[in-house]
Every structure is written in C-alpha cells, then in structure tokens.
Amino acid sequence: AQSVTQLDSQVPVFEEAPVELRCNYSSSVSVYLFWYVQYPNQGLQLLLKYLSGSTLVKGINGFEAEFNKSQTSFHLRKPSVHISDTAEYFCAVSERNNNDMRFGAGTRLTVKP
Amino acid sequence: EPEVTQTPSHQVTQMGQEVILRCVPISNHLYFYWYRQILGQKVEFLVSFYNNEISEKSEIFDDQFSVERPDGSNFTLKIRSTKLEDSAMYFCASRSGTGGAPQYFGPGTRLLVL
Asked: Does the domain at residues B5-97+106-113 carry the CATH identifier 2.60.40.10?
C-alpha cells in the first residue's frame, strides 16, 4: 500500500521569501500525486496534481511541484510567499491500480511579516 | 462550480448517542469517501464507497461506524454510539472516476462528543 511522508511538520518563513515543502512517497506501483491546502477552519482544497507527462506541475496561487521518480519525491515550492499562504499543506498519493488516496501528516506553513 | 456539501457544519452530542453526518457529493461522481481529522492532527482515511458498497475501510472504521447512500444524492456516515475520542472534523470527499481524478472535499462537520 502507498504511504506519504512530509518531512517538516512546521515551516516558518518571512513574507516574500521562497519556500519548499517536502514530500516523499512509498509505493510499489505507479502513482498519482497531489497537494492540498487547508486554510484555518476550512476543508481541503486541491492545489495541484501530477498524473503523467511533465514532471513540473503548476497549481493555483503560484505554487508548483516537481515529481522526482528516482527520489520518490514531490516537493511543493513557491518563489515568493504571502501572508495569505499561511495554512496547512497536505501531500497525497493515489496508486494507479486503486481509487484510494493516502495523506501525509501535513506541514503547517506560517508566513510572517 | 459544483461542490461537495456537508451538514451539519457543527454537531454536539452526548457520549453514547448516535449521530448521522450527511454529505452531498458532486452529482456525476462515482467514488465517495469519509475522512477524519482530530484537532491538530493529520487527515485520516476512514472508508471508501463505490457502486453501493464499501470498497476499503481503515482500522478506525470499526463496527460503530457505517455508511450509506440512501438515495441518488446523499452519502451518510453514522456513528452508532459515540465516544469522546470520536470528537473530530469529519470530511466527505468524492471523485469522478479513476485515471488520477482528484478527490474533492466538503467543508467538514465538526463533531464534539461530551
């Protein structure tokens, strides 16, 4: 079965600085990969997804992620963060031969002025 | 844009009582899910549902839990006899099919068991 590890539980960063949120996955088969964002007191919103093709995927709000098969990683990046990016970010993996998704523990991004 | 909706947004109940959490998935979706998030913790998979039956369930989803799709639109999670540790945010999600279709989440129901 698939699993996801988010290496950083909390990432504090100053406004306009770049940020990378790390995600590694484990699976014996090919996978689909996702990043979701959860703003305070809200549900999960899809940021971006990797299905196939180009390993660099762009999402909403200026975020992008790169799929690295050899390192089994799917790190999320943004070149310049805003205060409004403060949220919890979840990486998720779904194996291509089943319909279920597994989430990482989440990374709390805090953007400070 | 179609959304997953959940009712109620908040529910407070006494330990031992039954609760039913309701979800209306996106209308053309075929796969349905329930997740739980205890305050400050990760999102935990509870159960997936397809073609009117459970396709997978986690260790959390014990005999106290059940799911049902009573009609063509609603998808419910029932907790028969709530425990204090059932206090959490419960999220419903749906997806249209396979091939990497993402899951779309509802806003959640915050359940507090006293």
From this structure: yes
